[in-house]
Amino acid sequence: MERHEAREWTHDDASGSVRAPSADDDKYRRGVLGVVTGSNEYPGAAVLSVEAAHRTGVGMVRYVGPRAPRALVLARRPETVPGRGRVQAWLIGSGIAADRRTFLLLGELTHALSSELPVVLDAGALDLVGQRTGPTVITPHAGELQRLFAARETTGPTEHPAEDPAAWATAAAHELGVAVLLKGAVTHVADPSGNAYTVTAPTHWLASAGTGDVLGGILGALAATHAAEILDDPTVLTKLAATAAYLHGQAAVAASRAVGGGPIVALDIAAALPAAAGGLLAPTD
Ligand SMILES: NC(=O)C1=CN([C@@H]2O[C@H](COP(=O)(O)OP(=O)(O)OC[C@H]3O[C@@H](n4cnc5c(N)ncnc54)[C@H](OP(=O)(O)O)[C@@H]3O)[C@@H](O)[C@H]2O)[C@@H](O)CC1
Ligand SMILES: Nc1ncnc2c1ncn2[C@@H]1O[C@H](COP(=O)(O)OP(=O)(O)O)[C@@H](O)[C@H]1O
Fold first, then answer.
1. Where is this region: Disordered (predicted)?
2. For residue 240, how far is its CA from the centre of ligand 1 (angstroms)?
3. Model's pTM, two decimal places?
4. Reported ipTM
């Protein structure tokens, strides 16, 4: 397998990835993100992912999920539209336990995967990666990637992804035929075309529950607002994945600076996203 040296994704690389609406836009033209996240076990993940998507900038978020997380999502963010409808990209799996999926929830995940649209695939939907029909990026942490390989009875480059995350991200991209964003203090992004990027987190306060769910929302919003480009060239999704990790880090460090370098929680990152996204705006004509 060819192995390309991963390159650190910079501000210049990420710059221009956030699209401000123009006079010709409306909420649909800007991009609609469909979200299937959260469950009765982990309702908070739905709130975190939806909040982050709104805060990154998207025309609309449609939330499809069980009643309990749906109620929390709408209480926190009434801008969210519940139920199925036309979307440009999907975020699925965060806050879902693969072994506790209901028939209904599995149906929603499968519906998203069969759409031929860009999909961000996280946590409890990772095992469904083989059902993808559109450009797909998976966002596992090291433990999830190891489990995914074990379930496929595939041997990874080393015993555990944490030992050589760059090699694992590349191996997973080739094995699964999708873009891979492997989370950690250094996030490794790779795709089957040989693109490989690293994003070094600017703060370790990121290491807290729910920050990965926020990352999913960021990437989902970027995918929905760049869906046409991704469908034209799936490697755009790889670059947006690196940009999402970059934006996540910038928002986290800004949130921590605002409290004197102190601790932050996942929702603080979401709250800092608009200002961080403002630093990456695409030039307008
Ligand atoms: N507020 C909410 O609703 C929240 C909901 N959440 C939702 O919870 C669900 C479960 O996700 P989860 O990551 O907590 O557990 P799970 O995938 O079973 O992994 C467990 C094992 O994997 C390993 N491992 C874990 N992390 C690792 C790492 N970084 N690097 C390396 N290894 C790592 C570790 O095993 P060990 O290394 O200890 O052997 C650990 O014991 C998921 O749907 C998520 O979205 C969360 O987002 C939290 C906030
Ligand atoms: N030590 C660390 N330093 C900086 N960032 C980290 C560190 N550990 C984890 N992260 C980041 O925090 C996030 C954690 O995501 P994840 O493991 O999915 O947690 P959760 O499921 O609780 O949301 C990822 O974006 C990851 O890159």
1. 1-25
2. 23
3. 0.97
4. 0.93
